[in-house]
Design goal:
Blueprint (H helix, E strand, L loop, with lengths): L1 E6 L4 E8 L3 E9 L1 H5 L6 H23 L8 E7 L3 H18 L3 E5 H7 L11 E6 L4 E6 L6 E5 L5 H11 L7 H7 L24 H17 L5 H26 L4 E5 L6 H14 L3 E2 L3 H4 L4 H13 L15 H4 L3
The protein binds adenosine-5'-triphosphate, magnesium ion and fe (iii) ion.
The site of magnesium ion (MG) has 6 residues, from loops.
Length: 337
């Protein structure tokens, strides 16, 4: 089964061709980061216009790179949501047009299912699996009892991890997206500014990061008022340690409680070096198999959408041409039948 997949949920225009939800034939990504950087974050209206400008060209160049035509595809898949409505619409319209013109079935994909199934592009998954989703808009622990069955057992009650990283980075004077800068800075000091950890109720798998972000801002503001200097690296390190402690601890507790055979790390923040190494060390010590996609498959890309789309291809759950982009699409409701 060969699927052409399209992803336009945020600020990356991407087109991929994936075989059997496992093998990537091509995965082209055009990032708009340079355009949005001058505004300090993604501007939805600008994102939509950029997607319109690039989508046709990327579809053509991806098929060209793979040496394939639309007739070689078994289905056309596209991110239905969540994401920015104007951005999602461009991908959805493009996918419907291709499906109609080539007479191929259409598959609507959940963006976070894509982030999770990016792991399947590297190795087969073992079920039950537990996914730790850490991205710009999401922080969730998702239990997969079997392929394509998603159960959210915990999620952030306020900011997503990536969002907290970006806000802290901005306060430290770094450009958007700031996560990688904080990650790099965190290892540049031997000192740590101690910051709080939000464990919430003892049995909760939920997260909270806005208090931690506020604590970082409070340290900076207090120092400014007193005319004192703050070591930005020690502050970045304190922030990163608090984030990682909670993510690792709750993930390991959930793996045990639900008998997961594998832990899947995914989403843009999975690129974080501190998180990768802390989670790897804990999983190794406790004998839990850990999967982390390579960097290019952690951030937004269409190959992961092609991987998740294969779940619905197998069950024959195709979308009609009346399918609409849904910024609030539910992951659990997207589960296969
Ligand atoms: P969602 O998938 O929830 O819709 P998104 O697609 O915008 O959100 P991704 O593209 O998956 O999010 O991830 C982008 C986020 O990852 C940004 O917040 C960015 O700062 C963060 N990020 C990237 N690299 C790192 C890193 N090394 N350390 C921390 N955060 C990082
Ligand atoms: Mg992005
Ligand atoms: Fe994403």
């Amino acid at each position: 089964c060969r699927i052409l997949a399209i992803e336009t949920s945020c600020d990356e225009t991407s087109v991929a061709v994936v075989d059997d939800g496992r093998k990537v034939l091509v995965n082209q990504v055009s990032s708009q980061i340079e355009t949005h950087r001058q505004f300090g974050g993604v501007v939805p209206e600008v994102a939509s216009r950029k997607h319109v400008e690039s989508i046709t060209r990327i579809i053509e160049s991806s098929l060209g790179e793979a040496g394939l035509g639309l007739r070689d595809m078994d289905a056309i898949a596209v991110t239905q949501g969540p994401g920015l409505i104007g951005a999602l619409l461009i991908g959805v319209v493009a996918a419907k047009t291709l499906a109609l013109a080539a007479g191929k079935p259409l598959i609507a994909v959940h963006h976070i299912a894509g982030h999770i199934y990016a792991n399947q592009l590297v190795q087969p998954l073992a079920y039950p699996a537990l996914a730790l989703v850490v991205s710009g808009g999401h922080t969730e622990l998702v239990l997969l009892e079997r392929p394509g069955r998603f159960r959210i057992i915990g999620q952030t009650r306020d900011d997503a991890v990536g969002e907290a990283y970006d806000k802290v980075a901005r306060a430290l004077g770094f450009p958007y997206p700031g996560g990688p800068h904080v990650d790099r800075l965190a290892v540049e000091s031997a000192q740590t500014v101690p910051l709080p950890r939000a464990w919430l109720e003892p049995d909760s798998y939920d997260f909270s990061f806005s208090g931690l972000k506020s604590a970082v801002l409070a340290v900076l503001n207090t120092a400014k008022m007193k005319g004192e200097a703050v070591d930005p690296a020690a502050l970045a390190r304190g922030f990163q340690e608090s984030v990682i402690d909670v993510l690792v601890e709750k993930s390991m507790r959930a793996v045990k409680a639900f008998g997961a055979k594998q832990l899947l790390l995914c989403g843009g923040v999975a690129a974080n070096k501190g998180l990768r190494s802390a989670l790897s060390a804990r999983c190794e010590a406790e004998g839990v198999p850990l999967a982390i996609p390579p960097h290019a498959l952690c951030t937004d890309n269409a190959a992961m959408i092609g991987a998740a789309a294969y779940l619905k291809f197998q069950t024959g759950e195709f979308a009609g041409l009346d399918m609409v982009a849904d910024p609030g699409l539910s992951l659990e409701a997207w589960s296969v039948e």
